[in-house]
Amino acid sequence: MRLAKYLAHAGVASRRASEEIVAAGRVTVEGVKVTDPAFDVSDADLVCVDGSPLSGAEERVAYMLNKPVGVLSTASDTHGRTTVVGLIGVHRARMYPVGRLDAQTTGLILLTNDGELANRLTHPRFEVPKTYRARLGGGPVREPALQALQQGVELEDGPTAPALVRRVGPQELEITIREGRNRQVRRMCEHVGHPVLELHRTRFGPLRLGELAPGEHRPLTAAELGRLRAL
């Protein structure tokens, strides 16, 4: 197994983050520093990260959480602020969030120790759809603004891909995107003159948030995991 994949399966980090950890020289195999993420290892090898040995692949688990406002989409915070990982309590597996939300955005976020799954859900190549409900300022959303969002708008980091957008109220939209840029929905709406007042993610790929209350979480079912891995 490739070393980066081994680290991801062991719950160290996502596949991409594991590649960076290896390249930074933080990993040894049988006492020898390895900087090639493609280096081949097996469960019989002694693999250490920052001097701490790994015990091999953990059981892969995944949770759905309804993130409340103000909670950070990180595994930990140096200032002691509440994080999504903290909300699901203490688990044996080392969890990290998939598909991050900014602090003021609420709704569906996934947490897992499965680095391969996390990579497939977040890599731009797979174009996993994410759906949001946005309550907007700037008055009623008119047809030109709606069409601009549907066709794609020009942001400072380049044009966005076309989005699925439908009006659910005079100042409320449902927006589905297949990209994952930082604060993308907020920036798109502001670009067309409608700053976001509230933003809530309702779907991630085939998963729906459903009736999960703010701050509550549940493990994904085997069927849900199967649908995610089939994307």
Could you outline the blueprint of secondary structure elements for this entry?
Elements: H1 3-9, H2 15-23, E1 27-29, E2 32-33, E3 47-49, E4 52-53, E5 62-67, H3 84-87, E6 96-98, E7 106-112, H4 115-122, E8 130-136, H5 143-151, E9 154-155, E10 158-159, E11 164-169, E12 172-177, H6 184-191, E13 196-204, E14 207-208, E15 217-219, H7 222-229
Parallel strand pairs: 7-13
Antiparallel strand pairs: 1-2, 1-3, 3-4, 5-7, 5-15, 6-7, 8-12, 8-13, 9-10, 11-12, 13-14
Helix pairs in contact: 1-2
Describe this structure in words.
- The chain is an alpha+beta fold and 231 residues long.
- It contains seven helices and 15 strands.
- The strands form three sheets. Strands 5, 6, 7, 8, 11, 12, 13, 14 and 15 form a nine-stranded mixed beta sheet that branches. Strands 2-1-3-4 form a four-stranded antiparallel beta sheet, with no helix packed on it.
- The two termini are 23 Å apart.
Largest sheet: 9 strands, mixed
CATH architecture of the largest domain: 2-Layer Sandwich
SSE order in H/E notation? Answer: HHEEEEEHEEHEHEEEEHEEEH
Q: In CATH's first tier, which class of the largest domain applies?
A: Alpha Beta
Strand content: 25-35%
Total individual domains: 3
Q: What general outline do the C-alpha atoms trace?
A: elongated
Determine the mean pLDDT. 90
Task: Please identify which CATH superfamily of the largest domain we are dealing with.
Answer: Pseudouridine synthase I, catalytic domain, N-terminal subdomain
Task: Please work out how many helical segments DSSP would assign.
Answer: 7
* C-alpha-based Rg, rounded: 20 Å
Secondary structure category: alpha+beta
Unreliable stretches covering 5 or more consecutive residues: none
* Helix proportion range: 10-25%
Question: Would you report the number of β strands?
Answer: 15
In the CATH hierarchy, the third-tier topology of the largest domain is known as: Alpha-Beta Plaits
Assembly level: single chain
